[in-house]
Amino acid sequence: MKRTFLTTALIASGGALLIAAGPKADLNQDGQVTKAEFTQSAESRFYATDTNGDGFLTEEERKAHKDASREDRKDKRFAELDTNGDGLLSRAEIEARADEREARKDARRKELLQKFDTNLDGELSEAERTVMKAERKEKWAEKKLEWKDRRAKRGQRPKVDANDDGLISFEEHTAVTEQLFARMDANGDGVLTKGEGKKRRGRRGDKRGR
């Protein structure tokens, strides 16, 4: 089954308004996000951010929402470390997380050996390291192209505060939600699936070959 990828933020007047986020937008948990689910998720977040219920989002409300989301992420990270749920981090819990990180590093080292150790001697020679570094350099160059592309597209984002009054009305929010979904729904089928809207250039090399 395809998995939902959504993680999108719109920036307005210095504050961030989260439109949709990951599995939360997939209301029926079927691994994809329909336009109705996307819209409903966006509306729910609008009402949650509009704390005074006046139908407008102020800069203060957006900032409060952003701060609350940040604290929620911190709490979740802490809960992941606090495996026994006692509200404290013991030495054993901290060491367990360190062991997990070290295990991931070991797995990564083994992965690199398997990929680049062509003579199967259990270590990377200077020539093998040169090949590895060349591949990393190529991937880094591709990353920089992606970042440049993203920066260029920032100016194309739909404007949330359309009338520049410092407030985001429900109508403005809804209009941007519609535009955002249309942009992300690359194949126009009315459903968002994993990877859709994330890379609109196509497969690697497509753009460079044009």
Could you provide a short overview of the structure?
With 210 residues, the protein is mostly helical.
Q: How would you portray this structure in words?
A:
The chain has 210 residues and is mainly alpha-helical. The protein has one domain (7-89, 125-192). Helices cover 53% and strands 10% of the residues. The protein is built from six helices and six strands. It has helices at 22-25, 35-49, 59-81, 91-116, 126-154, 170-184; strands spanning 7-12, 15-21, 33-34, 56-57, 168-169, 191-192. A hairpin with a 2-residue loop joins β1 and β2 (15-21). α2 (35-49) runs antiparallel to α6 (170-184). The chain starts with 6 loop residues before the first strand and ends in an 18-residue tail after the last strand.
Q: How would you summarize the topology of this molecule?
A:
Blueprint lengths: L6 E6 L2 E7 H4 L7 E2 H15 L6 E2 L1 H23 L9 H26 L9 H29 L13 E2 H15 L6 E2 L18
Shape label: extended
Q: How confident is the prediction overall: mean pLDDT?
A: 80
Calculate the terminal CA-CA distance, rounded to whole Å. Answer: 33 Å
**How many β strands by DSSP?**
6
The parts where pLDDT drops under 50 for at least 5 residues are 1-21, 199-210
Rounded Rg = 22 Å
Structural class: mainly alpha
Largest beta-sheet details: 2 strands, antiparallel
Order of helices and strands: EEHEHEHHHEHE
Number of helices, counting only DSSP H or I runs of 4 residues or more = 6
Instruction: Give helix % range.
Output: 40-55%
Q: Please tell me the total number of domains.
A: 1
Query: Within the largest sheet, what's the order of strands?
Result: 1-2
Note the quaternary state here: single chain
Strand portion: 5-15%
